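Long-time lurker, finally posting.

We've been working with Glycosyltransferase (Niabella digestorum) and I want a structural starting point before designing mutants. I don't trust myself to interpret raw outputs, so I'm hoping someone here can both generate the structure tokens and explain anything notable. Sequence follows.
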Amino acid sequence: MSNQIKVLVVGDYLFSLYEEALVKAFRRLGLQVEEFKVCNYLDYTTFLSRKITNLQLNWLIGPIIHKANKDLERKLDEGKYDFVFFYRPRIFKPSVIEQGAHKSILMCYNNDDPFGKLYTSRYWKYYIEGLPYYHHIFYYRHKNKKDYEALNIVGNTSLLRSYYIADQNFPIPTPKEYDVIFIGHFEDDGRDEYIKYLLENGVSFKLFGTGWHKSKYFNYFESVMGKIRPVRKEYNETINKAKIALVFLSTLNSDTYTRRCFEIPATKTLMLAKYTDDLNSMFQEGVEADYFRDKEELLNKVRYYLANEEQCRKVGELGYARLIKDGHEITDRARDIIEIYKKIDESRKNHYH
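Top reply, 14 upvotes:
Generated this for you. Predicted structure of Glycosyltransferase:
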């Protein structure tokens, strides 16, 4: 790929698996990449500075917001980028986006649901007001296509799914230490009821994640499973050590799939997820993954796969094969973005000629 394509990736850069992973993928494909990091403007050094920073981010006012917007405006005004990719651009004023759109092709992506229940409307104010100025908008979940259409944004949106990262999510030949695991945060959507049901029915289960102290079953869970802790560096290894890894979907974020739906098959561990048509379109039920619709079906399928370990292994293998075949790695997503850029660029050239 030509290294003449020059791109600016704008985002928070708080977690390596988002903007940073995309930057690396673009560079692997031969693009020249510059980064605009909102994290450089944030001060989390003390309790007070954290409070002040978060107040500015939540209310979209203050010196952080002002300086970040001014600096980005200056960078965009130089107009030397073929395209600019905004990852969850929440704090940038619509006027800055509008001005930048005269200089470069602008695209944005949001892995959260800006029309969902997870945040206040104020939180997404600048994001939503800036939408008309992007040349292309990528959405994470099918639902958001209709949300954008309701704002009269039609014809320049497309699905850009989450992904796994090949050098972070991969199979390891390791003994299976856990029968069933769930890695993820607590959400008050009934997921703790499912876990309690498995434990009460004698399933050997291990839970990892944050926020579980909010569950009414927290003390019971820790008495049966031991301390509940998040996994970070050992994330991939932990999935590899499980025979079955569960997936619950965030109702607050309107999710019909999640990043973990790629990260689990990437290890060849069997994924057992809450059923959605969307997930089943990617991994066929009972063949490349499996699904449950209620507590009883979850328990029955867990018992089946634990009693039939060869079938459990086979479904995990076929899930991995489907993942590779369909191309759900971060570099595949970067290629999709570049293809959209080329189409927009070609269309503009034809229009001017």
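Before you design anything, note these points.
Residues 330-352 form the longest helix (23 residues).
The chain has a mean pLDDT of 95.
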